Amino acid sequence: MTEKGKAYIIINMKQCLLFPSIILLTLVFLMASTCETVPPAQETAPAAHAQQTQVEPAYVPTIVSQEVYDTAKADIQQLVQDLNGIIRARNYNRWLTYLTDSYRERIGSREFLEDIRSRYPAFRGRLNSAQDYFNLVVVPSRANDHVDDIEFVTENHVVAYTIDSHNQRLILYNLVDVNGVWKIDN
Q1: Sheet order of strands, 181-184 included
Q2: For the chain, what are the domain ranges?
Q3: Is the predicted pLDDT of residue 130 greater than 80, yes or no?
Q4: Long-range CB pairs of 56-63, under 8 A, 24+ apart, other chains included
């Protein structure tokens, strides 16, 4: 084989190696330029009795008119005043009527009660039922609540807020409209 033939083969081999490298670099560049950077999810501290729920579809608050908002807020403020009286009277059975069926089942579950006991040692050995939860957790913490604001999550799901002495907005209740009646569904 002549020197010219050897040089041609070497050049062809370099081109064969160069072509896949160019394609690979082009693909990497295209993928990098079309990828979107997603910020990491922010972790929030769970509430004392937070519940894992299904993620609801995004809701556009502008769908709710000012009139619907004002009516819902007044209804929920009245509901919380009624609940305050029921809780102060320690009327467990009446309080249960203000809960969704799923929340009532949840607070009576062994897993829920064990979770509360493990996080709050003062309740160990004393928190064994939903009624114990009502007497030991709800009565001391929810007897004098008031609603300062509400936020619609969906047309049938509202978060009620209170504003504390540090001007912080705190979740008071998650409420769900069940057949025209607002029920607690934390």
Answers
A1: 149-154, 157-163, 169-178, 181-184
A2: 61-184
A3: yes
A4: 56/153, 56/154, 56/157, 57/154, 59/152, 59/153, 59/154, 59/155, 59/157, 61/151, 61/152, 63/155
Task: Report which of 158, 157, 138, 160 is spatially closest to residue 86, judged by C-alpha positions.
Answer: 138
Euclidean distance between CA atoms 159 and 150, whole angstroms? 6
Tokens describing residue 103: 């929340």
What digits encode the pLDDT tens for the residues 41-88? 333 333 444 333 444 454 455 678 999 999 999 999 999 999 999 999
Specify which residues 170 forms β-bridges with.
Answer: 162
Q: Quote the radius of gyration of the chain (alpha carbons, Å).
A: 30
Distance CA 160, CA 131 (A): 24
Tokens 């009327």 -> residue: 91
Does an H or E element contain 182, and which? strand 181-184
Q: Give strand pairing partners of 157.
A: 154, 176
Whole-structure pTM value: 0.65
Which residues, including other chains, have CB under 8 Å from residue 173's CB and lie 6 or more apart? 80, 159, 160, 184, 186
Higher-confidence position of 7 and 93: 93
